[in-house]
UniProtKB/TrEMBL annotation:
Key words, A-Z: Hydrolase
InterPro entries: AB_hydrolase (IPR050471), AB_hydrolase_1 (IPR000073), AB_hydrolase_fold (IPR029058)
Entry keyword annotation includes Oxidoreductase: no
Protein name: Alpha/beta hydrolase
One Gene Ontology MF term: hydrolase activity
Transmembrane segments: none
């Protein structure tokens, strides 16, 4: 399998991406806040072998991508559109985890004709913290001690951590390299 990598200018910074190429339908992967585009290695190979064109990228401030202007963090859904434009992809299957799902949903709402399918996992889809009822319910369900837990306890299932210590170690290494400074909080349409 041949995978190309590069940087795409999204206006104000350049984002790192990888692309397996090929004639199959495109599947683009959006990473969680604890990861980067490098965290999709298993999916990259599996989807390419299944005949899809797999594409992943790191959002602003994540592994190999530039941070850009902190006063203008861009709109993540538009960054995704520019990555797809650069790769010559008109429509894609969009697969997103956690924080990546916030931006995948925004992309689907802003560019519905560009989305073949939308798959979202482990996300509350970016319900605004300013929505009082939601914020209160979230605070009641999530104990204050949660934020102090190690990242792998918050993000990886207990059975996975027990059954696959090598996988946990690899995930932790990817997580440690994922950011190149404080998180860049992208703008969201209408917020």
């Amino acid at each position: 399998m041949s995978v190309s990598e590069g940087l795409v200018d999204v206006g104000g910074c350049r984002l790192w991406y990888w692309d397996t190429g090929g004639p199959g339908e495109a599947v683009v992967f959006l990473h969680a806040g604890s990861q980067s585009g490098a965290g999709w290695g298993h999916q990259q190979a599996a989807f390419a072998q299944a005949g899809f064109r797999a594409i992943g990228y790191s959002r602003r401030g994540c592994w190999r991508s530039e941070r850009g202007d902190p006063d203008d963090p861009g709109v993540a859904a538009e960054d995704l559109a520019r990555v797809l434009d650069h790769c010559g992809v008109e429509r894609a299957h969009v697969v997103a985890l956690a924080l990546g799902a916030f931006y995948a949903l925004d992309f689907a709402l802003l560019h519905p004709a560009r989305v073949r399918t939308l798959t979202i996992a482990s996300s509350y889809l970016g319900i605004a913290a300013s929505e009082t009822e939601y914020a209160q319910a979230n605070a009641e369900l999530r104990p204050p001690a949660f934020d102090a837990l190690p990242i792998e306890v918050k993000e990886l299932h207990p059975s996975y951590r027990v059954e696959n210590p090598e996988g946990v170690a690899a995930w932790l290494a990817l997580s440690a390299q994922a950011r190149n400074g404080p998180p860049v909080v992208a703008k969201r349409p209408g917020r």
